[in-house]
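Contributing new records

If you add data, match the layout below exactly. Sequence lines come first and carry their own label; structure lines follow with theirs. Keep one chain per record. Anything else will be rejected by the validation script.
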Amino acid sequence: MFRRITTLTCAAAVAGAALVGLTAGIAQADPGCPDVHWIGAAGSGEREGSDLTVYSGMGRVVYQSLYELSTDLQQDGRTLTAEAVDYPAVPVPDDNGGVGAWLGFMGSVDTGAAALGKQYEDFVQQCPTSKVVLAGYSQGAMVVHRNLQALAASPNLAAVLLVADGDRRTDDPTLNLGTVSGVPKHGKGVAQDWPILAHAPAVLPADIGAKTISVCDLGDAVCDPDPDADKTSARAKAIHTSYARTPGLDWTAPLYFLLGPAPTAPQGPLPGPGPDARAITSTTAPAGSNSAASTATMASTAPAADNPAR
Protein backbone atom coordinates (compact mmCIF):
# COMPACT_ATOMS: atom_id res chain seq x y z
CA MET A 1 0.00 0.00 0.00
CA PHE A 2 1.16 3.52 -0.71
CA ARG A 3 1.03 6.38 1.79
CA ARG A 4 0.76 10.08 1.04
CA ILE A 5 3.77 11.90 2.40
CA THR A 6 5.61 15.08 1.50
CA THR A 7 9.09 14.32 2.82
CA LEU A 8 10.67 11.63 0.70
CA THR A 9 13.28 9.63 2.60
CA CYS A 10 14.59 6.38 1.21
CA ALA A 11 16.17 3.80 3.49
CA ALA A 12 18.95 2.65 1.17
CA ALA A 13 22.38 4.27 1.56
CA VAL A 14 24.32 4.14 -1.70
CA ALA A 15 27.86 4.93 -2.76
CA GLY A 16 30.04 4.67 -5.85
CA ALA A 17 29.26 5.01 -9.53
CA ALA A 18 27.90 1.57 -10.34
CA LEU A 19 24.37 1.50 -11.71
CA VAL A 20 21.91 -0.99 -10.36
CA GLY A 21 20.67 -3.43 -12.99
CA LEU A 22 17.17 -4.79 -13.29
CA THR A 23 16.49 -8.00 -11.45
CA ALA A 24 15.19 -10.84 -13.58
CA GLY A 25 11.94 -12.55 -12.76
CA ILE A 26 8.24 -11.76 -12.71
CA ALA A 27 6.75 -9.82 -9.82
CA GLN A 28 3.09 -9.59 -8.90
CA ALA A 29 1.79 -6.04 -8.85
CA ASP A 30 0.67 -4.43 -5.63
CA PRO A 31 -3.08 -3.71 -5.90
CA GLY A 32 -2.37 -0.03 -5.21
CA CYS A 33 0.01 0.41 -8.15
CA PRO A 34 -0.50 3.56 -10.24
CA ASP A 35 -0.81 3.93 -13.97
CA VAL A 36 2.26 6.18 -13.99
CA HIS A 37 5.10 6.65 -11.50
CA TRP A 38 7.48 9.66 -11.53
CA ILE A 39 11.03 9.58 -10.17
CA GLY A 40 12.51 13.07 -9.94
CA ALA A 41 16.11 14.16 -9.27
CA ALA A 42 16.78 17.62 -7.84
CA GLY A 43 19.50 19.95 -9.03
CA SER A 44 22.62 21.08 -7.17
CA GLY A 45 21.97 22.42 -3.70
CA GLU A 46 18.22 21.75 -3.83
CA ARG A 47 18.27 19.06 -1.13
CA GLU A 48 20.40 20.83 1.47
CA GLY A 49 19.33 20.53 5.09
CA SER A 50 16.82 18.20 6.66
CA ASP A 51 13.65 19.87 5.37
CA LEU A 52 12.78 18.16 2.11
CA THR A 53 9.13 19.19 2.12
CA VAL A 54 9.90 22.06 -0.29
CA TYR A 55 9.11 20.75 -3.77
CA SER A 56 8.92 17.26 -2.22
CA GLY A 57 12.69 16.92 -2.33
CA MET A 58 12.96 17.03 -6.12
CA GLY A 59 13.58 20.74 -6.72
CA ARG A 60 11.50 23.48 -8.33
CA VAL A 61 11.95 22.63 -12.02
CA VAL A 62 11.25 18.91 -11.66
CA TYR A 63 8.35 19.54 -9.27
CA GLN A 64 6.67 22.05 -11.60
CA SER A 65 7.09 19.58 -14.45
CA LEU A 66 5.45 16.88 -12.34
CA TYR A 67 2.56 19.15 -11.45
CA GLU A 68 1.75 20.02 -15.06
CA LEU A 69 1.88 16.41 -16.24
CA SER A 70 -0.23 15.31 -13.26
CA THR A 71 -2.98 17.72 -14.33
CA ASP A 72 -3.20 16.11 -17.78
CA LEU A 73 -3.17 12.59 -16.37
CA GLN A 74 -5.81 13.42 -13.80
CA GLN A 75 -8.10 14.71 -16.56
CA ASP A 76 -7.97 11.41 -18.44
CA GLY A 77 -8.48 9.33 -15.30
CA ARG A 78 -4.98 7.99 -14.79
CA THR A 79 -3.37 7.64 -11.38
CA LEU A 80 0.09 8.99 -10.64
CA THR A 81 2.60 8.57 -7.82
CA ALA A 82 5.99 10.18 -7.40
CA GLU A 83 9.22 9.98 -5.42
CA ALA A 84 12.43 12.00 -5.27
CA VAL A 85 15.85 10.47 -5.80
CA ASP A 86 17.49 10.26 -2.38
CA TYR A 87 20.98 11.67 -2.90
CA PRO A 88 23.11 14.61 -1.63
CA ALA A 89 22.72 16.93 -4.67
CA VAL A 90 25.70 18.89 -3.38
CA PRO A 91 26.17 22.50 -4.52
CA VAL A 92 28.39 23.13 -7.52
CA PRO A 93 31.92 24.19 -6.49
CA ASP A 94 32.75 27.82 -7.16
CA ASP A 95 35.23 28.93 -9.79
CA ASN A 96 38.10 28.59 -7.31
CA GLY A 97 37.12 25.08 -6.24
CA GLY A 98 39.98 22.62 -6.40
CA VAL A 99 40.11 19.06 -7.66
CA GLY A 100 38.82 17.77 -4.34
CA ALA A 101 35.68 19.88 -4.58
CA TRP A 102 34.97 18.64 -8.07
CA LEU A 103 35.59 15.04 -7.07
CA GLY A 104 33.06 15.57 -4.29
CA PHE A 105 30.56 16.89 -6.83
CA MET A 106 31.06 13.91 -9.12
CA GLY A 107 30.74 11.64 -6.10
CA SER A 108 27.31 13.15 -5.49
CA VAL A 109 26.34 12.43 -9.10
CA ASP A 110 27.53 8.83 -8.75
CA THR A 111 25.61 8.38 -5.50
CA GLY A 112 22.50 9.76 -7.15
CA ALA A 113 22.87 7.49 -10.17
CA ALA A 114 23.13 4.44 -7.93
CA ALA A 115 20.19 5.60 -5.78
CA LEU A 116 17.95 6.15 -8.80
CA GLY A 117 18.82 2.73 -10.19
CA LYS A 118 17.90 1.09 -6.88
CA GLN A 119 14.68 3.08 -6.48
CA TYR A 120 13.67 2.24 -10.04
CA GLU A 121 14.33 -1.46 -9.53
CA ASP A 122 12.39 -1.49 -6.25
CA PHE A 123 9.40 0.19 -7.86
CA VAL A 124 9.13 -1.96 -10.98
CA GLN A 125 9.46 -5.11 -8.89
CA GLN A 126 6.43 -3.99 -6.90
CA CYS A 127 4.54 -2.53 -9.87
CA PRO A 128 5.65 -4.41 -13.02
CA THR A 129 2.89 -3.00 -15.24
CA SER A 130 3.16 0.67 -14.27
CA LYS A 131 4.80 3.16 -16.62
CA VAL A 132 7.72 5.17 -15.24
CA VAL A 133 8.88 8.71 -16.02
CA LEU A 134 12.41 9.77 -15.03
CA ALA A 135 13.07 13.49 -14.70
CA GLY A 136 16.06 15.52 -13.60
CA TYR A 137 17.35 19.08 -13.63
CA SER A 138 21.03 20.07 -13.86
CA GLN A 139 22.98 17.68 -11.59
CA GLY A 140 19.75 15.68 -11.31
CA ALA A 141 19.62 15.38 -15.10
CA MET A 142 23.10 13.85 -14.96
CA VAL A 143 21.86 11.39 -12.34
CA VAL A 144 19.05 10.35 -14.69
CA HIS A 145 21.21 10.35 -17.83
CA ARG A 146 23.72 7.96 -16.30
CA ASN A 147 21.01 5.34 -15.82
CA LEU A 148 19.60 5.41 -19.33
CA GLN A 149 21.98 2.91 -20.92
CA ALA A 150 21.20 0.36 -18.19
CA LEU A 151 17.45 0.97 -18.34
CA ALA A 152 17.06 1.14 -22.11
CA ALA A 153 15.55 -2.34 -22.30
CA SER A 154 13.15 -1.86 -19.39
CA PRO A 155 9.53 -2.13 -20.60
CA ASN A 156 8.39 0.15 -17.77
CA LEU A 157 10.41 3.18 -18.80
CA ALA A 158 8.07 5.31 -20.89
CA ALA A 159 9.55 8.81 -20.86
CA VAL A 160 12.61 10.76 -19.71
CA LEU A 161 12.99 14.48 -19.07
CA LEU A 162 16.46 16.06 -18.89
CA VAL A 163 16.54 19.81 -18.19
CA ALA A 164 19.89 21.63 -18.38
CA ASP A 165 21.78 18.35 -18.46
CA GLY A 166 25.49 18.54 -17.66
CA ASP A 167 25.98 15.29 -19.62
CA ARG A 168 24.20 16.57 -22.72
CA ARG A 169 25.62 15.46 -26.07
CA THR A 170 24.83 17.11 -29.38
CA ASP A 171 24.76 13.71 -31.10
CA ASP A 172 22.24 12.09 -28.75
CA PRO A 173 19.09 11.02 -30.67
CA THR A 174 16.79 12.87 -28.25
CA LEU A 175 13.86 15.24 -28.72
CA ASN A 176 15.63 18.55 -28.18
CA LEU A 177 13.78 21.59 -26.87
CA GLY A 178 15.04 25.01 -25.85
CA THR A 179 16.84 27.81 -27.66
CA VAL A 180 20.11 25.91 -28.11
CA SER A 181 18.41 23.43 -30.46
CA GLY A 182 19.82 23.58 -33.97
CA VAL A 183 22.57 26.07 -33.11
CA PRO A 184 25.89 24.72 -34.49
CA LYS A 185 28.67 23.99 -32.00
CA HIS A 186 26.42 24.57 -28.99
CA GLY A 187 24.62 22.37 -26.51
CA LYS A 188 27.45 20.21 -25.16
CA GLY A 189 27.12 19.64 -21.41
CA VAL A 190 29.86 20.76 -19.06
CA ALA A 191 30.85 17.18 -18.17
CA GLN A 192 31.55 16.46 -21.82
CA ASP A 193 34.44 18.95 -21.68
CA TRP A 194 36.42 16.39 -19.65
CA PRO A 195 34.71 13.05 -20.40
CA ILE A 196 37.40 10.88 -18.81
CA LEU A 197 37.62 12.79 -15.52
CA ALA A 198 33.84 13.15 -15.34
CA HIS A 199 33.25 9.67 -16.81
CA ALA A 200 30.60 11.26 -19.00
CA PRO A 201 28.23 8.83 -20.72
CA ALA A 202 28.51 7.77 -24.34
CA VAL A 203 25.91 8.52 -26.98
CA LEU A 204 22.47 7.14 -26.15
CA PRO A 205 21.02 4.27 -28.19
CA ALA A 206 18.18 5.20 -30.52
CA ASP A 207 15.48 3.35 -28.58
CA ILE A 208 16.05 5.28 -25.36
CA GLY A 209 16.76 8.50 -27.24
CA ALA A 210 13.28 8.31 -28.75
CA LYS A 211 11.82 8.39 -25.20
CA THR A 212 14.02 11.25 -23.98
CA ILE A 213 13.31 14.99 -23.99
CA SER A 214 16.40 17.16 -23.54
CA VAL A 215 15.81 20.84 -22.72
CA CYS A 216 18.63 23.40 -22.97
CA ASP A 217 18.72 27.13 -23.57
CA LEU A 218 21.54 28.88 -25.41
CA GLY A 219 24.22 30.12 -23.03
CA ASP A 220 23.18 27.90 -20.11
CA ALA A 221 26.10 27.49 -17.70
CA VAL A 222 25.65 23.70 -17.44
CA CYS A 223 24.24 22.36 -20.71
CA ASP A 224 25.80 24.99 -23.00
CA PRO A 225 28.86 26.43 -21.21
CA ASP A 226 31.33 28.75 -22.88
CA PRO A 227 34.52 26.66 -23.28
CA ASP A 228 36.68 29.79 -23.51
CA ALA A 229 35.41 31.50 -20.37
CA ASP A 230 37.59 31.45 -17.24
CA LYS A 231 34.60 32.06 -14.99
CA THR A 232 30.89 31.47 -15.25
CA SER A 233 29.09 34.70 -16.07
CA ALA A 234 26.07 36.02 -14.20
CA ARG A 235 24.11 35.78 -17.45
CA ALA A 236 24.94 32.08 -17.88
CA LYS A 237 23.81 31.42 -14.30
CA ALA A 238 20.62 33.38 -14.85
CA ILE A 239 19.79 31.33 -17.94
CA HIS A 240 20.44 28.12 -16.03
CA THR A 241 17.99 29.06 -13.27
CA SER A 242 15.28 30.40 -15.61
CA TYR A 243 13.52 27.13 -16.49
CA ALA A 244 9.91 26.50 -15.46
CA ARG A 245 9.36 30.00 -14.12
CA THR A 246 5.89 30.26 -15.65
CA PRO A 247 3.14 27.69 -16.23
CA GLY A 248 2.66 26.10 -19.66
CA LEU A 249 5.93 24.19 -20.05
CA ASP A 250 6.95 23.25 -23.57
CA TRP A 251 7.80 19.70 -22.54
CA THR A 252 4.52 18.75 -20.84
CA ALA A 253 2.70 17.81 -24.04
CA PRO A 254 5.57 15.67 -25.40
CA LEU A 255 5.84 13.85 -22.06
CA TYR A 256 2.12 13.17 -22.10
CA PHE A 257 2.39 11.88 -25.67
CA LEU A 258 5.21 9.50 -24.76
CA LEU A 259 3.01 7.92 -22.09
CA GLY A 260 0.53 6.85 -24.75
CA PRO A 261 -3.26 6.80 -24.52
CA ALA A 262 -5.12 6.40 -21.27
CA PRO A 263 -6.45 2.93 -20.39
CA THR A 264 -9.96 2.27 -21.66
CA ALA A 265 -11.08 1.49 -18.11
CA PRO A 266 -9.35 4.00 -15.81
CA GLN A 267 -8.42 2.91 -12.33
CA GLY A 268 -10.20 4.38 -9.35
CA PRO A 269 -8.47 6.43 -6.66
CA LEU A 270 -5.49 4.88 -4.94
CA PRO A 271 -6.13 3.20 -1.59
CA GLY A 272 -5.84 5.24 1.57
CA PRO A 273 -2.84 5.31 3.92
CA GLY A 274 -1.37 1.96 4.81
CA PRO A 275 1.03 0.88 7.54
CA ASP A 276 3.75 -0.43 5.21
CA ALA A 277 4.16 2.55 2.95
CA ARG A 278 7.11 3.23 0.69
CA ALA A 279 8.58 6.71 0.51
CA ILE A 280 6.49 8.03 -2.34
CA THR A 281 3.79 10.60 -2.83
CA SER A 282 0.53 8.88 -3.68
CA THR A 283 -1.36 11.73 -5.27
CA THR A 284 -2.55 12.67 -8.73
CA ALA A 285 -0.80 16.00 -8.17
CA PRO A 286 2.26 16.86 -6.10
CA ALA A 287 1.60 17.19 -2.41
CA GLY A 288 0.65 20.71 -1.42
CA SER A 289 -0.34 21.73 -4.96
CA ASN A 290 -4.08 21.20 -5.06
CA SER A 291 -5.19 24.66 -6.09
CA ALA A 292 -4.56 27.20 -8.83
CA ALA A 293 -3.17 29.59 -6.22
CA SER A 294 -0.51 27.11 -5.11
CA THR A 295 0.45 26.49 -8.74
CA ALA A 296 1.05 30.16 -9.33
CA THR A 297 3.10 30.46 -6.16
CA MET A 298 5.22 27.44 -7.08
CA ALA A 299 5.92 28.78 -10.55
CA SER A 300 7.15 32.12 -9.25
CA THR A 301 9.29 30.91 -6.37
CA ALA A 302 13.05 31.20 -6.82
CA PRO A 303 15.12 28.01 -6.56
CA ALA A 304 16.97 27.32 -3.35
CA ALA A 305 20.28 26.90 -5.11
CA ASP A 306 21.68 25.37 -8.30
CA ASN A 307 23.96 28.32 -8.86
CA PRO A 308 26.58 26.81 -11.17
CA ALA A 309 30.22 27.70 -11.43
CA ARG A 310 33.03 26.41 -13.59
